[in-house]
Write a structure and sequence with these properties.
Length: 204
C-alpha cells in the first residue's frame, strides 16, 4: 500500500527517524551548556539561532545554526543512502516537523529555517547555495530574518522546477508550507511594522 506514491514502510521508518533527529533541541541544549539560561524564556522564546543571537553570544548562535542545519542534512543523507530517493523526501519532511514540533518540548519548537536549509544542502548542495543566496540577499536588504525565510521558501520550489528537480516538487512545497505556517505570527508583525530585525534584542 502506498500514500501519495510512498510506501507505508518508508513512511513509518524514515518518518520516525527524521522526526526524532529533528526534535533534538540544539538551541536549548547549547544555551544551557554555555550558561545562557533557558532559551524559551529569552527574547522571542524561539529555540532557533536567530533568538540565540539575541543573547549577544554569536558563537552560540553559529553553533545552533550549524547543529540545526546538520539535522536536516543528516536525515536526508541517511535516508538516501539506506533507502533511496522516496525515503529522502519523507525524511526531509519529518525532520522539519520534528524541529518545529518536538515532543520533548511539548511540540513547541523553532521556525525550522536552518533545518530547512540543511535538508536542501543534503539533498543537492547547489540548491542549498541557491537558497542561501536568496536568504542572504533578502536579509541584507530587509534586515528581517523572517522575510528572508519566507521569500526563500516561496521561490525555491520555482527554482527547483526550472532546474529539473520536478520529481522533488512535493518535498519543496510541503517544506515551504511548513515554513509559512511557522511564520504566521511574523507575517502579521511584518504587515504591522513591528517585526524584530536581525540582531535586535526583544523583551521576554
Amino acid at each position: 500500500m502506498t500514500i501519495f506514491g510512498f510506501g507505508l514502510d518508508i513512511i513509518a521508518i524514515w518518518g520516525a527517524i527524521g522526526y526524532l533527529l529533528g526534535s533534538i533541541p540544539s538551541g536549548v541544549i547549547l544555551a544551557r551548556l554555555m550558561n545562557l539560561g533557558d532559551l524559551r524564556q529569552i527574547g522571542s522564546g524561539n529555540i532557533g539561532a536567530t533568538n540565540v543571537l539575541r543573547t549577544g553570544n554569536k558563537t552560540a548562535a553559529a553553533l545552533t545554526l550549524i547543529a540545526d542545519a546538520a539535522k536536516g542534512a543528516a536525515a536526508v543523507l541517511l535516508a538516501r543512502h539506506f533507502s533511496g530517493e522516496s525515503a529522502l523526501q519523507i525524511a526531509g519532511i519529518a525532520v522539519l516537523l520534528g524541529h518545529c514540533y518536538p515532543v520533548w518540548l511539548r511540540f513547541k519548537g523553532g521556525k525550522g529555517v536552518a533545518t530547512y536549509f540543511g535538508v536542501f544542502f543534503g539533498f543537492a548542495w547547489p540548491l542549498g547555495i541557491v537558497a542561501s543566496v536568496i536568504w542572504l540577499t533578502t536579509a541584507a536588504i530587509s534586515r528581517y530574518s523572517s522575510a528572508a525565510a519566507l521569500i526563500t521558501a516561496g521561490w525555491l520550489p520555482v527554482v527547483m522546477f526550472f532546474l529539473g528537480f520536478r520529481g522533488y516538487f512535493f518535498l519543496a512545497v510541503v517544506l515551504g508550507v511548513l515554513i509559512y505556517v511557522r511564520h504566521l505570527g511574523n507575517i502579521e508583525r511584518l504587515k504591522a511594522g513591528t517585526e524584530t530585525k536581525i540582531g535586535e534584542k526583544v523583551s521576554s
